[in-house]
């Protein structure tokens, strides 16, 4: 099976899970350059305006994107692709990820997930479910093992 991914959207959350995910990126398109868009979504609650000033969350997102960009450039190497970052504010992380994939004409969304309990049931969370159901492209989900750092922002 020779699947080629040229344009990837990768939501990051500023956790160690990001490094695990970025370490896998090179293996997805080993022989061709890849256009990698790293996104961090600041989820804005309904009680606040969408363009609300959220300095702590913005700072956390910027730090996560700087770290992820450095890790991606190291993983991909200088001639293996183009890396860009986007810091977004949205009501729903999943909808923002899907919208970015549509805007970027992505071949795939690559994200992490972890199983947690909600209302007494195991779940991957709303973000992963939304992306899986609504993405216009392939979705590759890396399910983290028990005890792995939970992907807080990007894959709930």
Describe this structure in words.
With 156 residues, the chain is an alpha/beta fold. It has one domain (7-143): 3-Layer(aba) Sandwich (Rossmann fold). The protein has helices spanning 16-28, 55-76, 93-104, 126-134, and strands at residues 7-11, 34-43, 81-90, 108-113, 116-118, 121-123, 138-143. The strands form 2 sheets. Strands 3-2-1-4-7 form a 5-stranded parallel sheet, sandwiched between helices. Strands 5-6 form a two-stranded antiparallel sheet. The longest helix has 22 residues, at 55-76. The chain is globular and about 45 Å long.
Keywords:
alpha/beta, Rossmann fold, disordered C terminus, two-stranded antiparallel sheet, 28% strand, five-stranded parallel beta sheet, 156 residues
For the biggest sheet, the summary is: 5 strands, parallel
Question: Could you give me the name of the CATH homologous superfamily?
Answer: HUPs
Number of strand elements: 7
Work out the helix count.
Answer: 4
Q: What is the rounded Rg?
A: 15 Å
Structural class: alpha/beta
What share of residues are in beta strands? Answer: 25-35%
Q: What top-tier CATH class fits best?
A: Alpha Beta
CATH architecture annotation: 3-Layer(aba) Sandwich
Sum this structure up briefly.
With 156 residues, the chain is an alpha/beta fold. Helices cover 36% and strands 28% of the residues.
Secondary structure blueprint with pairings:
Layout lengths: L6 E5 L4 H13 L5 E10 L11 H22 L4 E10 L2 H12 L3 E6 L2 E3 L2 E3 L2 H9 L3 E6 L13
Parallel strand pairs: 1-2, 1-4, 2-3, 4-7
Antiparallel strand pairs: 5-6
Helix pairs in contact: 1-2, 3-4
């Amino acid at each position: 099976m020779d699947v080629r991914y040229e344009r990837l959207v990768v939501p990051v959350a500023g956790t160690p899970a990001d490094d695990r995910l970025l370490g896998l990126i090179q293996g997805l398109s080993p022989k061709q350059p890849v256009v990698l868009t790293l996104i961090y979504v600041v989820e804005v609650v309904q009680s606040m305006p969408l363009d609300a000033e959220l300095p702590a969350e913005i700072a956390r997102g910027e730090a996560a994107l700087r770290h992820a960009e450095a890790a991606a450039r190291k993983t991909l190497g200088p001639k293996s692709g183009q890396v860009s970052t986007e810091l977004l504010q949205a009501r729903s992380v999943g909808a923002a990820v899907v919208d970015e994939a549509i805007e970027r004409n992505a071949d795939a969304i690559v994200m992490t997930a972890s199983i947690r309990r909600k209302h007494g049931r195991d779940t991957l969370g709303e973000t992963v479910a939304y992306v899986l159901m609504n993405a216009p492209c392939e979705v590759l989900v890396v399910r983290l093992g028990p005890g792995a750092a939970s992907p807080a922002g990007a894959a709930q």
